[in-house]
Amino acid sequence: xxxxxxxxxxxxxxxxxxxxxxxxxxxxxxxxxxxxxxxxxxxxxxxxxxxxxxxxxxxxxxxxxxxxxxxxxxxxxxxxxxxxxxxxxxxxxxxxxxxxxxxxxxxxxxxxxxxxxxxxxxxxxxxxxxxxxxxxxxxxxxxxxxxxxxxxxxxxxxxxxxxxxxxxxxxxxxxxxxxxxxxxxxxxxxxxxxxxxxxxxxxxxxxxxxxxxxxxxxxxxxxxxxxxxxxxxxxxxxxxxxxxxxxxxxxxxxxxxxxxxxxxxxxxxxxxxxxxxxxxxxxxxxxxxxxxxx
Length: 294
Prior knowledge:
Blueprint: E1 30-33, E2 36-40, E3 57-61, E4 64-67, H1 73-83, H2 88-92, E5 94-98, H3 104-109, E6 112-113, E7 116-123, H4 150-159, H5 167-175, E8 202-203, E9 207-208, E10 238-244, E11 252-255, E12 274-277, E13 286-287, E14 291-293
Parallel strand pairs: 10-13
Antiparallel strand pairs: 1-4, 2-3, 4-14, 5-7, 6-7, 8-9, 10-11, 11-12
């Protein structure tokens, strides 16, 4: 499948993953939703049938709560400080970084894969060093944490007394009460010329004009929320979901698209779009938000 996502690791399990204590570190941005029946999926001709986006079907979801924002760097730092948790990227010793964000020397020294040459496997890249050695989070504490695997996201949720949303919950929440709209705000990508999400403008992967105001991640409260009060459910960072993506149970589902999605290549910022990666994979555009039962 054509995707701007970092490749999967498909590697040996590194040693050292420790159990994370289940806690109740309450998040203050949870939105309670009543659930109900909605039309999930799409038959959009511009979609990706191989992702099993369709057919459109009626699905019923129970009441639940979901975070208005993705987990920030600041919040993830609290988790790490409280638990001593080490992410998969730290334990593997590397993670994928978008090549254009790297200084020339580091870019040349970092291996790439032929089918996704815009991603570099950077030694020392992890959530606190998002572009590898020499980078930091100055000015980005309110941005979504990235370089987190599905395992890392699930561990944070357990510490917070929560869980990852299912795909059904995620899509219901992301639609914001709209029926079969392409985006969380309607069917036009830029209504009245106004940018509503952080995605790629220009020619992917060569030039991003950043017309939406951001190159790379944006703050978790950037742009207007959808009808249910959720921010950035289109673009910014991919969000891990609880579900397996495929019957073979090798990949976990991800939703929402990222700042690298572009209509010419990967228009998965549509609300019904989905993709996947191995649960130990990480990269500079993978994040998450929490959910819980009510």
